[in-house]
Design a protein that fits this description.
With about 400 residues, the protein is of the alpha/beta class. It folds into two domains: about 5-180, Flavin prenyltransferase-like (Rossmann fold), CATH 3.40.50.1950; about 190-400, 3-Layer(aba) Sandwich (Rossmann fold). It is about 35% helix and about 20% strand. It is built from 14 helices and 20 strands. It has helices at about 20-30, 50-55, 70-75, 75-80, 95-100, 105-115, 125-130, 135-145, 170-180, 215-225, 255-265, 310-315, 335-345, 385-400, and strands at about 10-15, 35-40, 60, 85-90, 120-125, 150, 155, 160-165, 190-195, 200, 210, 230-235, 250, 270-275, 280, 305, 325-330, 350-355, 370-375, 380. The chain has an eight-stranded mixed β-sheet with strand order 13-12-9-14-17-18-19-20, with helices on both faces. Strands 3-2-1-4-5-6 form a six-stranded parallel β-sheet, with helices on both faces. Strand 10 and strand 11 (about 210) form a beta hairpin. The chain is globular, with a radius of gyration of 23 Å. Cytidine-5'-monophosphate binds next to helix 12 and strand 17.
């Protein structure tokens, strides 16, 4: 990781057993010279004491919206604005529902509604609560409102159940905070281009070849790069996601359109190819809808190879971005396949994702990524969700480029 930013965090601790991990988070933030002002909800105070929070934060703890002393010392509006970043850890289903609905009936929800600063949530709840359509609706809503999230992670829960709902570890939350605090500096003046989502390759005016890419990883990377201060263009295939805040988004359909859009953004310092580009497209898209004609059987669609955007970007030349990053999903022989792909594509880094059934990655929330560098370096990251993968990647990019002169 690059330079250690210092800054000011407003940390909201809501009511969940994971609140004890927030004490550890405060300690780690203070170790980094980051000032922490804490708000403890009434439910949060059932899990950690105000005294423990205040002792670690080195500041008083704010608890009541209508407390004369809290309001006299620091009004809730000022409280929410005198921070560089508002972090909610743990973020309960209830507090997230309040945020999604715009409620403001206690100090935490009021500060969250009044803030003009970026907000980072570390959700923590029972897996069924996390999966519930109401919670997922709120998550979607909050994403659209520009709120970012780290976690939840998968694993054993304090309630005895197993699934996705554990709060991200303090280390992971710290990393997400550092990326966001670096916004004014680490990647300022750097230009980045990110590809995301699937491509749609037309067969005829109504049919196309596509894949199941959601675009979440690429969008999270674009958002994290922007949060770190980079000037980001996101070139995305058709996805059902909100445009990340602070990012210039170009929507395309086909691989050829994606390549063209990417090339018009050059020169760039950083290119991250996270799109699931279709390898092939129909050689000739029919101009009219193909008809089902009795007796003639199915039409034969002949395919041709699409351009490889990553390989094109990574090819030597005056326009080559300084750092070109690709992705690879591998089911077996991760190491050999990743190294071969790194060499074949010519990119600087390759993030290889082990999707073999034994890892539980496929269809699950677990994601184990290994970063391969052209110089032979290799780093396996712990199980992370897509936001955390994005944060860690951006922290690595900042370490590589951040302090060097553009
Ligand atoms: O060859 P494979 O599809 O496994 O490589 C994956 C990497 O290459 C990803 O980073 C993806 O975004 C990129 N890619 C690309 N253009 C293609 C195919 C893959 O940019 N046509």
């Amino acid at each position: 990781m690059g330079r250690t930013p210092s800054g000011r965090i407003l940390l909201i601790i809501s009511g969940g057993i994971a609140a004890y991990k927030s004490l550890e988070l405060i300690r780690r933030l203070r170790d980094r010279d980051i000032a922490v002002r804490a708000v403890l909800t009434r439910a949060g105070a059932q899990f950690v004491t105000p005294l423990a929070v205040a002792s670690l934060a080195g500041d008083k703890v704010y608890e009541e919206l209508f407390s004369l002393t809290d309001e006299a010392e620091m009004g809730h509006i000022r409280l929410s604005r005198e921070a560089d970043l508002v972090v909610v850890a743990p973020a309960t289903a209830d507090l997230m529902a309040k945020m999604a609905g715009g409620h403001a009936d206690d100090l935490a929800s009021t500060a969250l509604l009044a803030t003009d600063k970026p907000v980072l949530l570390a959700p923590a709840m029972n897996p069924e609560m996390w999966q519930h359509p109401a919670t997922q609706r709120n998550v979607e809503r909050l994403h659209r409102d520009g709120v970012s999230m780290v976690g939840p992670a998968a694993g054993d829960m304090a309630c005895g159940e197993v699934g996705t709902g554990r709060m991200a570890e303090p280390e992971t939350i710290l990393e997400a905070i550092l990326v966001r605090l670096g916004g004014s500096g680490t990647l300022a003046a750097r230009r980045a281009v990110v590809t995301s989502g699937p491509t749609h390759e037309p067969i005829d005016p109504v049919r196309y070849i596509a894949n199941r890419s959601s675009g979440r990883q690429g969008h999270a990377i674009a958002a994290a790069l922007a949060a770190a201060g980079a000037d980001v263009t996101l070139v995305t295939g058709p996805v059902n996601l909100a445009t990340p805040p602070g990012v210039t988004t170009v929507q395309v359909e086909t691989a050829r359109e994606m390549l063209e859009a990417v090339q018009t953004t050059l020169p760039a310092d950083i290119a991250v190819c996270a799109a699931a580009v279709a390898d092939w497209r129909p050689e000739q898209a029919a101009s009219g809808k193909l008809k089902k004609t009795d007796g003639t059987g199915a039409p034969l669609v002949s395919l041709t190879t699409n351009p490889d955007i990553l390989k094109t970007l990574a090819a030597p030349g005056p326009q080559r971005p300084r750092l070109v990053v690709g992705f690879a999903a591998e089911t077996d022989d991760l190491d050999a396949n990743a190294r071969a792909k790194l060499a074949r594509k010519g990119c600087d880094w390759l993030l290889a994702n082990d999707v073999s059934p034994a890892t539980g990655t496929f269809g699950g929330a677990r994601n184990t990524v290994t970063l391969y560098r052209q110089d032979g370096g290799r780093e396996t990251w712990p199980e992370l969700d897509k936001t955390a993968v994005a944060d860690r990647l951006v922290a690595s990019i900042a370490a590589e480029l951040g302090t060097a002169t553009p």
